[in-house]
Amino acid sequence: MRKDPTGRALQLLSLLQTRRWWRGVELAERLEVTERTVRRDVDRLRDLGYPVDATAGKHGGYRLAAGAHMPPLVLDDDEAVAVVVGLRYAAEAAIGGMEETSLRALTKIEQLLPHRLRRWVSALHSSVASLRRAADDVVDPEALSVLAAACRDREDVRFDYRRRDGENSRRLVQPHQLATAGHRWYLVAWDRRRHDWRTFRLDRLREPRPTGSHFTPRQIPGGDAARFIASSVGSIPRHHEAKLAVNAAFAELEGVLRRVDHTPIEMEADSCLVRIRDDDLDRLALTVARIALTAPVAVIEPAELADTVRRLATHLTA
To answer: Are residues 13 and 62 in contact, defined by beta-carbon separation less than 8 angstroms?
Structure first.
């Protein structure tokens, strides 16, 4: 069956969006047409305003060039659902102003979804709830942009920083890498005045200013920012600490506790006592709930966490 030229052109556009470069013969094979037809479809896309670059010759091919405007995207079902789900959670990101922008984009895309996909996405959103972040956890998008550019350009930065104890300080650092952990953003940098590596939470950081001086990058301890943040953040005393009794061997909890600050206290063949720590009581309650999916668990202390877990269980039962 011969394909409609318009449908074939859209399929060609979709292919061009998935790779930086396509050989003409590859496009012809994918579209099940001749290379001459591919050339005509490329001309059709150009007439519609899509900038398609071409190289002639035996090894010639095509690529979708950057234009003055972003071209419409052609997505398959799985890609469309992934974009919608991603935008939904971007609307709850810890970046100031991201919520409204993400919701506008989400509304536009959801209106275009076929009915079957719209029902699937609606069911997903109605069945999943997210813990709300505190207002002071929000990151200034302009600060994020300044720090990202400074990491890229290897440029020193000054900024005001609110320490964990609430005291304010001024820092001069060599920013190396940005990273995320959960809903928080971190900067890994060499502190020039303290002559050591430091991890900074971006929601506590204000008015970063490039100094104009550049530096030679150093090797981050542990090899990258993710490992360094995991070790440095994990070593900070947590605001909340809990003691749990679990009716399972400690080895069975490895997957659940992999990303949780925890310490085994007692380990028996079929039970264990575990201490877990976090700076958010709700996240501790969710950790208890995840453990409960593996084995029966009881909160020994603190009473505040036990009450939170009981409320969570009541809501889930309801």
So the answer is: no
- Is 289 domain-assigned? yes
Structure tokens at 118: 């719209």
| Together in a domain, 257 and 296 | yes
Q: Which helix (H) or strand (E) holds 127?
A: helix 115-127
- On the CB side of 167, CA atoms within 13 Å amount to 4
Residue 135 counted as domain residue: no
For residue 68, the model assigns a pLDDT of 45
Q: Which residues does 52 contact at the CB level (< 8 Å), separation at least 6?
A: 16, 42, 45, 46, 62, 63, 64, 65
Hey, which bits of 107-253 come out as E strands?
Answer: 155-162, 168-181, 184-191, 196-201, 205-214, 240-246
Number of structural domains (the chain) is 4
State the CB neighbour count (10 A cutoff) for residue 152: 9
Q: How confident is the model at residue 1 (pLDDT cuts 50, 70, 90)?
A: very low
Q: Can you give the CATH number for the domain in which 290 is found?
A: 3.30.70.250
Cis omega (within 30 of 0) for bond into 302: yes
Among candidate residues 234, 257, 278, the one where a domain is terminated: 234
In a domain, 310, yes or no: yes
Q: What value does the mean pLDDT of the chain take?
A: 80
- Is residue 170 in some structural domain? yes
Average pLDDT rounded to a whole number, residues 226-238? 67
**The pLDDT value given to residue 215:** 95
pLDDT over threshold 60, residue 128: no
**Comparison of pLDDT for 87 and 267, the residue scoring more:** 267
Domain range for 104? 77-127
Predicted TM-score (pTM) above 0.85: no
Cα 86 to Cα 76: distance, rounded to the nearest angstrom? 15
